[in-house]
Design goal:
By secondary structure, the protein is an alpha/beta fold. It has helices spanning about 40-60, 75-95, 105-110, 120-130, 140-160; strands at about 1-10, 15-20, 25-35, 65, 100. It has one domain: Ribonuclease H-like superfamily/Ribonuclease H (Nucleotidyltransferase, domain 5, 2-Layer Sandwich), CATH 3.30.420. The protein has a five-stranded mixed beta sheet with strand order 3-2-1-4-5. The longest helix has 25 residues, at about 140-160. The radius of gyration is 17 Å and the shape is globular.
Length: about 170
C-alpha cells in the first residue's frame, strides 16, 4: 500500500489531501485546507511548513505529489506561489519523503478526463472517485486531486514496467 499526500500550494490557502493507493484502488484518509491568513509573508510560509510537517508526522505518507507553478501574467503572484511550494517541499524533504510534481493540466486530465476542467468539475470527480459523502472545499479537493493524479501515474508506471520487453522479438 502507498500513502500519498497531495498538495495544492497557495500563499493564503494550501489544500492538502491524503489517500491510500493499493491494487489500483484509492481510499480517502484525510483532507484539509491550511489557512495562512493575511499576515506577513514569511509567517505564512512558516505556517505551511509547520502544518505540512505535522500532517506528515501524523499520517506517515510514503510519497508527496505537488502541483507545479503555472505561468502567470502576475510575476509577484507566481513568485509567492513558488515560495509556498518551496515551504511544502522542504517540510516533505526533511522527512525523507519523495516529491513528485505535476502540471495543473495533467492533474485535471487524470481526475476529470480533460486538462481544461474547472474547479467545480474537479470537486465533483474527487467526491465521486473517493466515495465521499459531502462536498470538499476547493483547495482541499485540489490537494486530493494531486494525490489521485500521482496514484494514477504510479499505476501507469507499474504497467509499463510489467509489460517491458527486452527486445523486439518479444514485442506483441
Amino acid at each position: 500500500m502507498l500513502r500519498i499526500i497531495g498538495i495544492d500550494p497557495g500563499s493564503r490557502m494550501t489544500g492538502v489531501g491524503i489517500i491510500d493507493s493499493h491494487n489500483q484502488k484509492i481510499h480517502h484518509v484525510h483532507h484539509e485546507t491550511i489557512s495562512c491568513g493575511d499576515g506577513d509573508f514569511p509567517v505564512r510560509l512558516k505556517t505551511i511548513f509547520e502544518s505540512v510537517n505535522e500532517l506528515i508526522k501524523q499520517y506517515s505518507p510514503n510519497e508527496m505529489a505537488i502541483e507545479n507553478v503555472f505561468m502567470s501574467k502576475n510575476a509577484n503572484a507566481a513568485l509567492k506561489l513558488g515560495q509556498a511550494r518551496g515551504a511544502a517541499i522542504c517540510a516533505t524533504v526533511v522527512n525523507d519523503i519523495l516529491v513528485h510534481e505535476y502540471a495543473p493540466k495533467a492533474i485535471k486530465q487524470a481526475v476529470v478526463g480533460k486538462g481544461g476542467a474547472d474547479k467545480t468539475q474537479v470537486q465533483y470527480m474527487v467526491k465521486l472517485l473517493l466515495n465521499l459523502k459531502e462536498k470538499v472545499q476547493n483547495d482541499a479537493a485540489d490537494g486530493l486531486a494531486v494525490a489521485i493524479c500521482h496514484a494514477n501515474n504510479r499505476w501507469a508506471q507499474q504497467r509499463l514496467v510489467a509489460n517491458n520487453t527486452s527486445n523486439w522479438r518479444n514485442f506483441k
